[in-house]
Amino acid sequence: MCWKRRVWQGLKKSLLRHRRVGINKTLLEEKITAAWQRRGLLACVLWPLSQCYRVTTAARRYAYRQGWLASVRLPVPVIVVGNIFIGGTGKTPFAIWLVQALRQAGYVPGVISRGYGAENSESSREVLADSSATEVGDEPLLIAARGVCPVVVGRNRGAAAQALLQAHPEVNVIISDDGLQHYALQRDVEIVLFDGRGTGNGWLLPAGPLREAATRKRDFTIVNLASTESIPASLPASAVRMSLVGTVAERLNDSTQTQALSTLGQQSSRMLAAGGIGNPQRFFTLLKASGLVITAMALPDHYDFSDNPFAGSDAEIILITEKDAVKCRQIAAIKNDPRIWVVPVIAKIDDALANQILEKLRGHKIT
Hints:
Elements: H1 3-16, H2 27-36, H3 41-65, E1 78-82, H4 91-104, E2 109-113, E3 125-126, H5 133-136, H6 138-147, E4 151-153, H7 157-167, E5 173-177, E6 189-195, E7 220-224, E8 240-245, E9 248-251, E10 254-260, H8 261-264, E11 271-275, H9 280-289, E12 295-298, E13 317-321, H10 322-328, H11 332-335, E14 340-343, E15 346-349, H12 352-360
Parallel strand pairs: 1-5, 1-6, 2-4, 2-5, 6-7, 7-8, 11-12, 11-13, 13-14
Antiparallel strand pairs: 3-4, 8-15, 9-10, 9-14
Helix pairs in contact: 4-6, 6-10
Pathway: Glycolipid biosynthesis; lipid IV(A) biosynthesis; lipid IV(A) from (3R)-3-hydroxytetradecanoyl-[acyl-carrier-protein] and UDP-N-acetyl-alpha-D-glucosamine: step 6/6
GO molecular function: ATP binding; lipid-A 4'-kinase activity
EC number: 2.7.1.130
C-alpha cells in the first residue's frame, strides 16, 4: 500500500529537479489538490482507475479480516492515528496530544512510525537523542522530543512495535502514527484525521484524494480546523474539532529566547515564513491570523534542507515549523542563523475525547 505515496513523492521530486527553492515546486501539488476538490474533467477521466483501486483496497482489508493474510496482535492496546485524505491533516500534533493525554491517565505510551524519509527503514530503529532525520525521519524526531516517550520507526509496524516493547517493557499502550492502512498490525482503536478540505470530491485515488472510502469504519473522526472554519458537511456529525494554536516563537539556536508572535511582527517588515509540511498553507494562515505580514515559502513535505532555501533571502526574520526545526538544528549552515525562529503549535481538543478514547481501550477491537 506504499505505491501511492511513492508516486506522490515522485511527482514532487521531478518538479524539484528544476529548481532550488520552494515556491514553484508546489505548483504541481496545488493543481492536483485543486483537481481533487471537484469532479472535473481530470477526475472523471481517472475515475475508472479509482474503481480498480477501490476493489483492490477492499479485497486487501477483507483478506486481513478473514485471516487469509497474517496480522500481529500485541500484548498491549494499539491506537492507530492516520488519515484517508492524502497529505497533511495534523497527525503529528495530534499524536503528541494523545501521548500526553494517555500519560495523564496513568498509561505509559510508546509510539511507532513509518519514519518517512529515513534511510534503511526496512529495519526497526529507536529514536534517540542524537538521532538524525535521515536516520529516523523528521516526524518521529519531533514526537520523541515533544512527547518525551519512546519512539521506534520501521516499515513493518508489527516488528517496530515488538522492538519497542522489548526495549521498553514498561510501555502499556502503543500509538501507531500514520499506520491506518497497515492491517498487518491489529488495532484496538482507530482515529482518522481530516482538515477543512473534508473528503475532497469524495473519490479514491487517483481520481480523488482518498486512500479509502470516506465511509470506512473508525472509532473517532478528528477535524483539524482554523478558528474561522466549520466542520465540512461531508464528515460525520460526531466529528471532533481540533485546532492548532501557536502564539510564541523560539529562536532556532537558543530555544530559551522566546517572543510573542504579535511582538515579533513589530520588529521587521521583511518577514519570511517557510513550511515543509503536508499542508503549509495552514501554517501561513496561523501566522497571518496573529497579525503578521509574511512572504510565504512553501516547501515540499519532509524537505531535508540540504539545499539552504534561506541563503539568498534578505528577510530579517524567518519563521519555520517545529517539524522543519528538527532538521535545521542538525545543519551547520542553518542552525546558527539568528534570523530563524520556530513557531511551536499545540493541539487544542475537547477534554472529553481523552475519556472516550480510554473507554475504547477497554477491550475494544475493530473488525
